[in-house]
């Protein structure tokens, strides 16, 4: 990516925002303005794009703890704090106005929410979406990024996140970079194993959703396996 100074002035995030409005900016450009500066060899747009890819987009990024954010090169205390503050503002606004209360959280809702996040992904990502007892989303995070076309899922990592947020219900969502949302044998076997572990630990996996280019696969809806809710 070219250095910001070499980009036409009106293509730089700040100038673009002032001329065309905030809504004209991509997620990476918005984050670049928030973070303000990069480091030698990587400009802030590159850092922003990398962060969004690593954590599954804006939704995933805003749920990452400050100490985890600081592990990323180029993200110092102030930058990590800014991201965390935006995430906290969002959560409080949602809570205050009950924005999510009118939404039915199901496979279709989650597909529409995450399809743009995964659209250009070249690797598999796994999102964990935790819900409270009222089936409202309380936490979302990208817990795995595969090497190319596969993901290893460890129930211990899922349960650790559930315990942290006192969650009893969750969805798993992952993408197939090939564009074909059909489950592989590994997908099916892994889901069966997770269901067994969930029952033992008395938590509920509400569905496992695979997102492709133009469609998605819901284990629950397709009745490939029985996911209890």
Defining traits:
229 residues; alpha+beta; Cytidine Deaminase, domain 2; 5 strands; 45% helix
Could you write a compact summary of the structure shown?
It contains ten helices and five strands. It has 229 residues and is an alpha+beta fold.
Shape descriptor reads: globular
In round numbers, the mean pLDDT is 82
Largest sheet, spatial ordering of strands: 2-1-3-4-5
**Approximate strand percentage:** 5-15%
| Total separate domains | 2
Structural class: alpha+beta
Euclidean distance between termini CA atoms = 46 Å
Q: Please tell me the CATH architecture of the largest domain by its name.
A: 3-Layer(aba) Sandwich
Helix run count: 10
Low-confidence stretches: none
Largest sheet descriptor: 5 strands, mixed
**Secondary-structure element string:** HHHHHHHEEHEHEEH
Question: CATH-wise, what's the superfamily of the largest domain?
Answer: Cytidine Deaminase, domain 2
Q: What proportion of the residues is helical, as a percent range? A: 40-55%
Write down the CATH topology of the largest domain: Cytidine Deaminase, domain 2
């Amino acid at each position: 990516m070219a250095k910001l100074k070499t980009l036409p002035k009106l293509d730089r995030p700040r100038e673009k925002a002032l001329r065309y409005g905030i809504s004209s900016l991509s997620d990476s450009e918005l984050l670049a303005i928030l973070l303000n500066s990069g480091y030698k060899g990587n400009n802030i747009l590159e850092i922003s794009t990398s962060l969004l890819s690593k954590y599954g987009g804006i939704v995933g990024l805003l749920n990452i703890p400050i100490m985890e954010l600081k592990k990323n090169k180029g993200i110092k205390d102030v930058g990590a704090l800014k991201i965390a503050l935006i995430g906290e503002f969002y959560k409080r606004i949602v809570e205050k106005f009950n924005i999510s209360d009118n939404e039915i959280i199901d496979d279709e809702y989650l597909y529409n929410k995450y399809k743009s996040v995964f659209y250009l992904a070249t690797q598999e990502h796994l999102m964990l979406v935790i819900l409270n007892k009222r089936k409202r989303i309380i936490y979302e995070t990208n817990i795995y990024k595969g090497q190319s076309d596969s993901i290893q899922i460890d129930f211990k990592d899922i349960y650790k996140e559930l315990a942290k947020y006192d969650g009893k219900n969750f969805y798993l969502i992952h993408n197939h970079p090939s564009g074909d949302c059909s489950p592989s044998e590994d997908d099916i076997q892994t889901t069966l194993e997770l269901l067994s572990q969930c029952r033992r630990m008395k938590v509920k996996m509400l569905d496992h959703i695979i997102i492709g280019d133009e469609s998605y696969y819901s284990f629950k809806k397709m009745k490939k396996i029985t996911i209890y809710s």
